[in-house]
Amino acid sequence: MPTAIAKTTIADEPPADIEILPKEVSTEKRFSDPRNFINRELSWLEFNRRVLEEAQDPTQPLIERVKFLTIFSSNLDEFFEIRVAGIKQQIESETSHLGPDGLSPTDTFNGIQRVVRELVAAQYALWNEELLPELAKNGIRIPKMADLSARRAAWTHRYFQEEVFPMLTPLAVDASHPFPQLLNKSHNLLVRAKTQRGGERLHAIVQVPRVVPRLIAMPRGKGEEPWVYIYLASLIKQHIGELFPGLILDGVHAFRVTRNSDLYIDEEEAENLLRTIEHELRRSSRGNAVRLEVEADCPKDFRDLLLKFFSLTEADVYKVDGPLSMTHLTPLVTNDAFANLRDRPFQPARDPALPPHVNIFEVMRRQDLLLHHPYESFDPVVELIEEAAQDPQVLAIKITLYRTSGDSPIVQALINAAVAGKQVTALVELRARFDEAANIQWARQLEEAGAHVVYGVVGLKTHCKALLIVRRDADRLRHYVHLGTGNYHPRTARIYTDFSLLTCEPQLTEEVAAVFNTLTGLAGYPGLKKLLVAPFDLQKRLIGLIERERDHALAGKPARIIAKLNHLVDQETIEKLYEASCADVPIDLIVRGICSLRPKIPGLSENIRVFSIVGRFLEHSRIYYFENAGQREVYLSSADWMPRNFFRRVEIAFPVEQPALRDRIIDEVLPKFLHDRVKARELQPDGSYRRLKPEGKEPREQAQLQFRERSRRLEKKSRKPKRTALVKLTPIRSIANAEKS
User: Fold this and answer.
1) Which residue, among 380, 602, 566, has the nearest Cα to 490 in the 3D structure?
2) Which residues, other chains included, contact 28 with Cβ-Cβ below 8 Å and sequence gap of 6+?
């Protein structure tokens, strides 16, 4: 079957500041030149710019715009906690290490400052000039305290005295009271006061309590009265004088500190990894400060005092004209009363082969199944584990758990299976960033139930998504396997785009069993045929597949590469893509986040296009497609093309070999991403992105919308009652034509 994805070659002129190296330069030097690589941190900021653009898009429903504003802020917090913290450590240690792009840590930090200040200014301008007025037009107000009516002001005072005041603890800062250890991302007020006019200046810190909502909804009367919210910090600031009776307040200003939140664990020295991580979690909440956010009107002497307290410089302070964190706006996003200002509700469809209450094991013996989440429900995966826990014919369950929800039905099913006497083995990744505490909690629950809990492999994160069920069928012992690109997390499965493969194909399932044995036992990696496994051979074999496409192109055979990823950073892989491009291999890369490759440079990457799609759902699936001289191959994976995924994580890339499922990905899924002209942006050689729009007679296609509409049709079809009355038969040819349309 010929591919539905047409070959495209692009040869736009590069920007003036990118020099084209002459072809006489050695191949190795030409591909590895630092000018051919985009800095990974600056590329990530461009991704977050695309998130901000979704908030800026006036065609989005209003509350969806607010949602993207909160995502932008949350992303930026994590960026400072991890990436900026690491760069500052490199600067302090005076490391001379340069990345593939040739920038030093100081160069990178300076670039980050410039871009972040630009983005934050745009974020708050959007909030103050567009979103706040639009919210007010739709009956949602967040007024300043001074603008409240007398009735509302009286209510806020009562609320402060009854609900907030008892929580507050003023902390003096003087010779006998050192500056308090404030928690990461905590919201605080710096107070300056005097004992009398002209007396000694005193300082104190008031922490904004975390147990009180940061955005407080005021009571609503009858009728069409608007929703009115107030910021908790503004409420405390308004009445803070009640905490300091007898003093004259000389200034009160809010600030927020971001700290280094990365965990530092030497596993070989840690006798008990679980306890070590618990200790590191407590320590990381008080790690070194990396960013200080203050109100726009905070005077310089206040800023200087805070910078001194946190051992920061002026380069680390960011002045904001509004709430110190847009994540505090989440109550607006989650309020069901604003449903008319959000996206149309979406209910995932069930795969027709997996109706409710079907015996999933019987279905898997007949056929492989491919589920595209969130358009197709994740429920069958949960039901498979629940059925395995109850089925007396199931003898063992093995699973990797990187992230899952706190009330996960999957964890409960595993506990039930262990209690029932089944052999349950869970490879739990305790170092899943920002989910460490939750993972520790349910890992202990599994252990208490009698499951074997393995805390990964020394030096590696277990990031692959694999489930193996051993069942005694009537004919023989059989392996049933689920492999996925996303986590065993029922909640995120409704907002992340991922794939699930359900199979009992003998060779593939035997290889999954071999991977589990390698991870839990003492045996070395045996080498596998179907699965590509990091850190053992994923990068090596992936590069071999890229080189094979290069060789096919040079031999005049069909060649093509399409990869859908979260991030593309690995230098060696990028150089091989450049090499394939120079051999005239058409390459399309759908990279949601970081991309260090520069596309569309003549003589280097003129045959490479890079797209990014940011939309309602988080693009999370990884797809690798190779034309292979007409013998098309598709792999799905948990792995991005980054050094951490290739060498510091356990990852699996697995083939989709059943022809109908493979062709669905190649001929239906990938073309929709490549033809998106609503949510897609194209990477330019200078590292910027250009939003794509229909050209000529191109339709205004949107990949995620098309997948949703397909799901709605599927769900509607599955709910349609079957007719029992006699009907006139429709000719086969007419049915075929109707399906095509």
Assistant:
1) 380
2) none
Q: How far apart are CA 68 and CA 122, in angstroms?
A: 13
Q: Please tell me the CATH superfamily of domain 139-341, with its number.
A: Polyphosphate kinase middle domain (3.30.1840.10)
Say if CB 502 and CB 380 are below 8 A apart. Answer: yes
Is pTM beyond 0.85? Reply is: yes
What per-residue confidence (pLDDT) applies to 735? 26
At residue 95, the pLDDT reads 74
CATH label, 360-530, candidates 3.30.565.10, 3.30.870.10, 3.90.1170.20, 1.10.645.10: 3.30.870.10
DSSP-assigned states of every residue in 669-689: IHHHHHT--SSEEEE-TTS-E
Residue 425 pairs in a beta bridge with 398, 452
201 C-beta neighbours (distance < 10 Å), count = 10
**Residue 91 burial (CB count, 10 A):** 14
> What's the CA gap between 248 and 175, in Å, rounded?
20
Which regions of the chain are under pLDDT 70?
1-28, 197-198, 223-224, 262-286, 405-406, 430-439, 522, 718-741
Q: How far apart are CA 634 and CA 621, in angstroms?
A: 13
What one-letter code names the amino acid at 684?
Q
384, 362 in Cβ contact below 8 A?
no
What pLDDT does 719 receive? Answer: 66
Given a contact cutoff of 8 angstroms between Cβ atoms, the answer to whether 488 and 399 are in contact is: yes
Residue 463 known to be catalytic: yes
pLDDT for residue 718: 67
| Domain spans of the chain, in order of start | 27-37+533-719, 139-341, 360-530
Q: Which of 3.40.50.2300, 3.30.870.10, 3.40.50.150, 2.102.10.10 is the CATH number of 27-37+533-719? A: 3.30.870.10
pLDDT score at 277? 46
Catalytic entry in 187, 328, 372, 463: 463
- Please tell me if the domain spanning 139-341 has the same topology as the one spanning 360-530: no
At residue 285, the pLDDT reads 46
- CA 292/CA 46 separation, integer angstroms: 22
CA torsion 299-302-306-312 (nearest 10°) is 40
For residue range 216-244, list pLDDT tens digits in order. Answer: 999 987 766 899 999 999 999 999 999 99
